[in-house]
Structures are given as C-alpha cells and as structure tokens.
Amino acid sequence: MIISSILVSFPPFIQHLALARFDYSGVGNSEGNLEECTVGKWRKDVLSVIDDIAVGPQILVGSSLGGWLILHAAIARPERVVALVGVATAADTLVTQFSQLPVEVKKEVEIKGMWTLPSKYHEDGFYCLKYSFIKEAEHHCLLHSPIPVNCPVRLLHGMKDDVVPWHTSMQVADQVLSTDVDVILRKDSDHRMKEKADIQLLTYTIDDLIDKLSTIVN
C-alpha cells in the first residue's frame, strides 16, 4: 500500500510547473505514529498542503489511499483543484475489506481493538490498524452516493492489483459527477504500478491534462 500524493501546480500562462510530493502523517518519511492516524487526519494533511504550501490551481495525483484522499480534497477545495489523477485508487477500500470479514473475525477485532492486516508492502508483513480507525474511516466513505467532483478525472489501475481491485476505479468513475473521466487499465500491472511503462503512462496522463487545461485557460 502506497500512501502518498503529488500536487502539480498549474499557474496560468506560465511554462514551468512546480511539484510537491509528500507522505501523510505516520507514513513514509513523515513524522507521526501510524497507529494514531485516521483518514480524517490524512484528509487534513492534504488540505493543509493545498492551503499553506501550494500556489494556484492544482492537479492532484494520489496513489492507493492517496487516490481516496484526493477525491476528498477536490470536494473540499473545488476552486483550487482543476484535475485528479488516481493510481490504484483505494476509495473506501479498508472499510470494504473489513466489512467483508467473517462475523467472528470482526467481533474479535472489536474486542481486541486492533486489526492486523497482512501486507507484502510493509517490512513487518502486516499493518496494525485500530478498530477505531475503521469506525472513523466509515465517515469518509464515498462510493455509496454520487461524488461531487466536477473536474477532469483520470484513474489508472493494474488488473493484477492484489490489494485494491481494479473494479474500485470503475466504481469511482461511475459515481463522480464529472463527465470528463477516463479509466485506464493495465493488464499486467500490480498495485504499485512502478514499472517503466507504468511511470510513462502516469507522465503522459499528467502531460495530457496540462495540455488540455492550458487550452482551456488560453
């Protein structure tokens, strides 16, 4: 699971672009304890970067949980966010995964207060999430109703993703209000989409959005 976002500043009539990449609290190089984090806190992290660091209109690029959070950022800051690029977008995924557990397992997690989630992407082989994290995350689910995002949206997903099903991106595309939505599936790509061809696709997708938005501005 990659929890990160990229904000690409898009100042009208200016050729160069500024880029800010960051990890959320408790993840990657950022300070904080993962066990003390919530989806709501991570949402505030994104909005803080938009409000306090980024300048001008923004193209938001989010991977995995970052893809979920950029949707929230677009809802909260529609005047600042001009486009979204989601990579293996994990909208609602943790809540969905938990809800699909057997009843006895969910009860055990509730009693212990901790959910051990296996992951080959963590050095320990698993993530430890508090039960309270899941309950808080339920308040940020988006797929149960139309998503009020009207900017261009591009969703990239590997069909060999064993963490977030590619169908999740299809659900997001179906629920966002924007009519300018593309879902691009890569047959042999996994969750991280880090191969050369995957990175090229991401680069081309961002470049295409910049060209499109430049045309609109001019």
UniProtKB/TrEMBL annotation:
One of its GO terms (molecular function) is palmitoyl-(protein) hydrolase activity. Residues 60-197 form the Peptidase S9 prolyl oligopeptidase catalytic domain. It is found in: Mitochondrion. The keyword Methyltransferase does not apply. GO terms for biological process: proteolysis. Its main location: mitochondrion. Keywords: Hydrolase, Mitochondrion, Transit peptide. One of its GO terms (cellular component) is mitochondrion. Gene3D superfamilies: alpha/beta hydrolase. PANTHER family: MYCOPHENOLIC ACID ACYL-GLUCURONIDE ESTERASE, MITOCHONDRIAL (PTHR16138), PALMITOYL-PROTEIN THIOESTERASE ABHD10, MITOCHONDRIAL (PTHR16138:SF7). Belongs to the AB hydrolase superfamily. Acts as an acyl-protein thioesterase that hydrolyzes fatty acids from acylated residues in proteins. Regulates the mitochondrial S-depalmitoylation of the nucleophilic active site residue of peroxiredoxin-5/PRDX5, a key antioxidant protein, therefore modulating mitochondrial antioxidant ability. Also catalyzes the deglucuronidation of mycophenolic acid acyl-glucuronide, an active metabolite of the immunosuppressant drug mycophenolate. This is Palmitoyl-protein thioesterase ABHD10, mitochondrial. The lineage of its organism: Eukaryota, Metazoa, Chordata, Craniata, Vertebrata.
